[in-house]
């Protein structure tokens, strides 16, 4: 035999013998009586013949090394270089088939042929091993059944004696709780405080005193489970069936140990502890702590528990009845206070004219022309700037017109016309013509009710309503019982989308670049100014006077580009060649979201000016195809106009309370009528929290207090909120209003000072102090001029840099760290 194969031959022989003995034992153990050796050979001979070849091939192929296989094949004359390992194995296996066969049956004959004593002994050994294995398996099954039976009895017992166990755990917990309360010197605020409220108070106290080292809820839950593990095993031994212990002794030859009881009861005890804890959370603390003086007796404690439970259930029923009664009373109050206040009005003897159309189509022009012809008229605008624009335009055209906003009054002698912000509308004043601009704002959740009041309660011969197409259906529905004349307007100048992505260096004369924050406006304007361009700016917090001057510079050609927020989309007519969207999304006060179709149309519609440009262009910095689809798609009709508290509502509320906190609660509970949506009143509530339960609330009437809460100023500015409160305190104390805070060291301070003076003016006009107001209007105008001059001379924005590495970032980059630092972190 080849030397390489000789090393593996003996191993294969031993493996063959081992497999033969296994087969022999398996054959013999299943026989009820001893078969002859010859019978075994007859029945298993064919299998035995195969054993050697299988053992030889598998053992040698597995254990011979790759180099040994190659050497063996090479000596046989095979070419083995550059042959795959798989093929080498296959060739080797085929080649070793012809090796000399081990005579397995001959080897077995030598052991058992004509050796009846040895053969019978082998049979006895096989049967004994088989019997022992069956007995062991049976014993395991019996033990398994016994453990399952034990678990079953434990579950049954815990279920049947739930209340008994609960009463004992209740007693133990009550004793522990009484001791802890006495040690801590706790005085319970109420005898009816339930355990869950006690734990929550402890949790809050621990957190506030910086000893928040353990969750008090988990502490007591674990304590209850520990009680069960302490007394549970002995309790189980007293209540488990006696035959179960006998059966265990018989099966295991020892007594049932406590450790096994604990192991078998572990999960049931944990589950039971959780159930007990949940039940105990609903108990009164005083019912638990009194148990320390009552030694545990099952009958006595069951009587105590039944009495406590009955009393608790009585109180729950009473509390539910009180809640129901309060709810019914609350519903009656809501119905009485709000009732039918917000139902659309019946038809009125007013001629309504609805001007519906796209941006920049002359809707407002037509309505104002009609107002000019009337003996008296009022224009209601969404912005001070638009009211100011109409005021100046009418006076320039020889129609005396006064201006009235919350922060200013410019009374023109002999004027029968007024330009106002929509919040200044008073339904008792009669005008021949009322013009209500940007009426789609009726759906705005915070300001929309001002448009609703103006549209439905205008005291006029003729009311002109100007709105976008998506507001048409809702306004017609609102005026369904009245005669409405509808005029629709379509742009004469088409809009064309540029599909090439815009970059800031593509900026050209006549461009209006739109972004959605003051910060971004200033950054973009600064970058354009550094490249040598003259830039105008418009953003929401900019004073209207400054905004007007910025617009005039663009109109006169002193600047070639305008950078603006979406404030540009409302009523501002400028010679814009192209609108550029620097961003396709905006932050709306709660989250960043994509622009809506109406928002894109409102802003993009400012591109193109009749007589200057024959086409308006629109460009984007990303996704131009998607944005173009928004320009083309039909807008969803507006759904639901906004409603807000009225004077009549406050008059009815005063019958019930002088606390505005209750009013805000009832307003939240009031279900808005179908087709309406309630104003959030979030700014009013924010201010109210500053003066709730104070002398201010005590001395002011409901209507007056709400009037001060409803003043239109930037209440999101903490310094302005503080000034608002100081002025109210001065009014209550009978002192002069404190002067507004004026700082002038930079653009932001000037803008905040402008708002501070504006807040002061709101108070002065509300108190009827017009002489003082005219002085502060001049101060505010001076601040506005300073803001304009700062913008005119150039905005100095510190170059944006990565907060980690200091690398320069482009102004449009939205994050505080560069991409490299972000990925590295």
TrEMBL record:
Transmembrane segments: none annotated. Keywords: ATP-binding, Coiled coil, Helicase, Hydrolase, Nucleotide-binding. SMART domains: DEXDc (SM00487), HELICc (SM00490). Residues 310-340 form a coiled coil. InterPro entries: DEXQc_SUV3, Helicase_ATP-bd, Helicase_C-like, P-loop_NTPase, RNA-DNA_Helicase. Residues 344-468 form the Helicase ATP-binding domain. Residues 489-649 form the Helicase C-terminal domain. It comes from the Bacteria. GO terms for molecular function: helicase activity. The keyword Cell wall biogenesis/degradation does not apply. Pfam families: DEXQc_Suv3, Helicase_C. This is Helicase-related protein. The lineage of its organism: Bacteria, Bacillati, Bacillota, Bacilli, Bacillales.
């Amino acid at each position: 035999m080849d030397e390489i194969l000789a090393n593996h031959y003996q191993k294969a022989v031993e493996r063959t013998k081992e497999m033969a003995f296994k087969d022999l034992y398996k054959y013999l153990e299943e026989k009820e009586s001893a078969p002859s050796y010859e019978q075994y050979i007859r029945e298993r001979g064919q299998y035995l013949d195969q054993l050697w070849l299988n053992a030889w091939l598998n053992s040698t192929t597995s254990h011979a090394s790759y180099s040994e296989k190659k050497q063996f094949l090479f000596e046989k004359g095979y070419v083995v270089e550059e042959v795959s390992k798989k093929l080498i194995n296959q060739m080797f296996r085929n080649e070793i088939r012809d090796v000399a066969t081990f005579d397995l049956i001959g080897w077995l004959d030598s052991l058992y042929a004509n050796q009846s004593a040895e053969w019978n002994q082998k049979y006895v050994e096989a049967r004994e091993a088989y019997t022992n294995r069956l007995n062991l398996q049976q014993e395991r099954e019996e033990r398994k059944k016994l453990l399952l039976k034990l678990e079953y009895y434990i579950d049954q017992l815990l279920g049947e004696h739930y209340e008994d166990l609960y009463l004992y755990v209740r007693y133990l917990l009550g004793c522990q709780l009484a001791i802890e309360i006495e040690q801590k010197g706790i005085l319970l605020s109420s005898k009816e405080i339930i355990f869950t409220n006690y734990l929550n108070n402890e949790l809050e106290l621990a957190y506030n005193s910086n000893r928040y080292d353990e969750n008090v809820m988990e502490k007591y839950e674990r304590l209850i489970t520990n009680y069960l593990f302490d007394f549970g095993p002995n309790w189980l031994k007293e209540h488990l069936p006696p035959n179960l212990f006998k059966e265990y002794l018989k099966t295991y030859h020892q007594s049932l140990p406590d450790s096994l009881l604990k192991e078998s009861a572990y999960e049931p005890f944990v589950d039971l502890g959780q159930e007990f804890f949940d039940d105990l959370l609903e108990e009164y603390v005083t019912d638990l702590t009194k148990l320390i003086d009552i030694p545990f007796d099952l009958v006595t404690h069951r009587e105590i528990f039944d009495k406590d439970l009955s009393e608790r259930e009585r109180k729950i029923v009473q509390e539910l009845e009180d809640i129901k009664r309060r709810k019914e009373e609350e519903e009656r109050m809501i119905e009485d206070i709000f009732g039918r206040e917000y139902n659309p009005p019946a038809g009125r003897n007013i001629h309504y004219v609805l001007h519906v159309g796209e941006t920049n189509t002359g809707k407002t022009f037509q309505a104002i022309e009609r107002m000019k012809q009337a003996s008296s008229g009022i224009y209601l605008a969404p912005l001070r700037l638009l009211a100011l624009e109409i005021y100046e335009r009418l006076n320039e055209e020889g129609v005396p017109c006064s201006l009235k906003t919350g922060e200013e009054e410019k009374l023109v002698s002999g004027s029968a016309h007024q330009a106002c912000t929509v919040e200044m509308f008073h339904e008792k004043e009669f005008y021949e013509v009322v013009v209500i601009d940007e009426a789609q704002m009726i759906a705005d959740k915070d300001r929309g009710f001002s448009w609703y009041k103006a549209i439905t309660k205008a005291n006029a011969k003729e009311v002109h309503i100007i709105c976008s197409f998506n507001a048409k259906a809702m306004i017609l529905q609102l005026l369904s019982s009245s005669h409405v004349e509808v005029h629709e307007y379509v742009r004469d100048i088409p809009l064309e989308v540029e599909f090439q992505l815009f970059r800031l260096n593509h900026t050209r004369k006549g461009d209006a670049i739109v972004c959605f924050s003051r910060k971004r406006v200033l950054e973009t304007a600064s970058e354009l100014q550094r490249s040598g361009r003259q830039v105008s700016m418009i953003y929401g917090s900019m004073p209207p006077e400054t905004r007007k001057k910025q617009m005039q510079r663009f109109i006169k050609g002193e600047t070639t580009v305008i950078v603006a927020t979406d404030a540009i989309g409302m009523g501002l007519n400028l010679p814009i060649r192209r609108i550029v969207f620097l961003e396709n999304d905006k932050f709306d006060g709660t989250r960043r979201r994509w622009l809506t179709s109406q928002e894109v149309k409102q802003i993009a519609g400012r591109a193109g000016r009749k007589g200057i440009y024959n086409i308006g262009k629109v460009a984007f910095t990303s996704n131009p195809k998607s944005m173009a689809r928004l320009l083309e798609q039909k807008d969803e009709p507006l759904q639901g106009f906004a409603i807000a508290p009225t004077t009549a509502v406050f008059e009815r509320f005063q019958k019930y309370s002088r606390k505005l906190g209750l009013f805000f609660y009832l307003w939240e509970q009031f279900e808005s009528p179908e087709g309406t949506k309630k104003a959030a009143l979030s700014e009013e509530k924010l201010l109210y929290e500053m003066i709730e339960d104070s002398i201010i609330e005590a001395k002011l009437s409901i209507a007056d207090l709400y009037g001060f809460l409803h003043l239109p100023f930037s209440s999101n500015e903490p310094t302005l909120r503080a000034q608002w409160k100081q002025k109210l305190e001065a009014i209550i104390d009978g002192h002069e209003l404190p002067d507004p805070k004026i700082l002038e060291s930079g653009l932001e301070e000037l803008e905040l000072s402008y708002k501070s003076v504006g807040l002061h003016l709101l108070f002065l006009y509300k108190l009827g102090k017009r002489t003082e107001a005219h002085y502060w209007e001049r101060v505010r105008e001076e601040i506005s001029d300073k803001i304009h001059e700062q913008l005119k001379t150039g905005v100095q924005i510190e170059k944006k840099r990565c907060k980690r590495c200091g690398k320069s970032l482009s102004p449009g980059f939205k994050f505080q760290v560069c991409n490299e630092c972000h990925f590295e972190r």
